[in-house]
Amino acid sequence: MERVTESGAAPPALGIGMVGYAFMGAAHSQGWRTAGRVFDLPLRPVLAAVAGRDADAVRAAARRHGWAAAETDWRALIARDDVQLVDICTPGDSHAEIAIAALEAGKHVLCEKPLANSVAEAEAMTAAAEAAAARGRIAMVGFNYRRVPALAYARGLVAEGRLGALRHVRVTYLQDWLVDPDFPLTWRLEREHAGSGALGDLGAHAVDLAQYLAGEPLVGVSALTETFVRERPLLAGAAAGLSAGPAGGTRGRVTVDDAALFTGRLASGALASFEATRMAAGRKNALRLEVNGERGSLAFDLERLNELSFHDHTEPAVTAGFRRVLVTEPGHPYLEGWWPPGHALGYEHTFAHQARDLVHAVATGTAPAPSFADGLQVQRVLAAVEESARNAAVYTPVLPSLPVSPVSR
Ligand SMILES: NC(=O)c1ccc[n+]([C@@H]2O[C@H](COP(=O)([O-])OP(=O)(O)OC[C@H]3O[C@@H](n4cnc5c(N)ncnc54)[C@H](O)[C@@H]3O)[C@@H](O)[C@H]2O)c1
């Protein structure tokens, strides 16, 4: 059942065409299927077509995830009249080509993070997005963790001044799927496909969140990166990025980092620290952060994503302390469409929230956040991290650092 307008009619359709149908493809499908049923949207997302390279596999994915049609070439997907928005869920090496072609063809675009594999690609994509914006087309990058209600609420607290001037932002993003030295050489371990390793995969989220929460860019970084396991078994066949596929006998070279550790300075002078690794045994998807300001602090752990810890340092010391805010009230961001208070949300809901915000941006013609310019800013930070790591962790400016756009709601 689709939501209907007050007059009883279904809102006009917004045809979605998605490229790539594995991990993010499944998550985005869930978001597109759900958003219009939970939220009152001005346009109705229609899952028009999905594209992949293998005809049988893409047809099976279309059936499983609810897409009306399947294409074996993303160019054919972009050319379809029933596709108005192209959703890019492929590895980074194809983001620039697909996004620029889609924008030039007059489509709106959602592109998974990191925006690209290099600053040059991200610059070209941002230029294409700016040209398309002049023609009323919207381009957004998929930093979905901004859409965790507790983190959107946290941003509101910082913006209201509840933390005062910021002193520290620290973000760690830890996974452990590379601890096994026999985990095969998937695309995420090859620079030509992924751009970088834990840095672009996890560090990109950490950097975007730090800049989003603080509302200001990083202006310089000092970094260490390491590749602990330098050779891994070659894949015998194609395998999705996070799942180990069949490995042959020979090994190939890992060309990205396994871990990145860096400090940074925000524009206001606040200090930030980051750790991104896929080598933290026992940590599955441990995204944790803390922000300290002169008036208070907040802390978040993705494993308890319905909760935000908040400390108001202006309260009397005898009763002050971190309080656990259960971010499930109707007045909290994104909660208006969901369940009664305390009936918790999860990871998948961030993709419905992302779809909701993007549909509003398309319908109202407003610039979305995070924009391609925000994705470019993150890309410049990642490039500065790699440059610093190559130069014995010397402090390296992020040039030029761009303003960070607030959430578009
Ligand atoms: N937002 C998040 O939390 C999050 C999480 C995981 C991955 N990602 C990002 O999403 C993107 C995809 O990652 P994933 O985990 O879904 O990878 P994946 O390996 O699970 O899926 C990649 C898909 O892209 C397809 N593909 C690859 N090259 C293609 C091409 N040229 N044309 C058409 N299809 C092609 C593959 O067949 C597969 O369907 C990456 O940019 C990644 O960094 C984001």
Automatic annotation (TrEMBL):
- Enumerate the spans annotated as GFO/IDH/MocA-like oxidoreductase domain: 153-298
Q: List the SUPFAM superfamilies.
A: Glyceraldehyde-3-phosphate dehydrogenase-like, C-terminal domain, NAD(P)-binding Rossmann-fold domains
What molecular function terms (GO) are annotated for this protein?
nucleotide binding; oxidoreductase activity
- Decide whether keyword Secreted is in the record: no
Q: Enumerate the spans annotated as Gfo/Idh/MocA-like oxidoreductase N-terminal domain.
A: 15-133
Q: Which UniProt keywords apply?
A: Oxidoreductase
Q: Does the keyword Transcription regulation apply?
A: no
The UniProt entry, under Pfam families, shows:
GFO_IDH_MocA, GFO_IDH_MocA_C3
Protein name (database record) = Oxidoreductase
Q: Which organism is it from?
A: Streptomyces cinereoruber
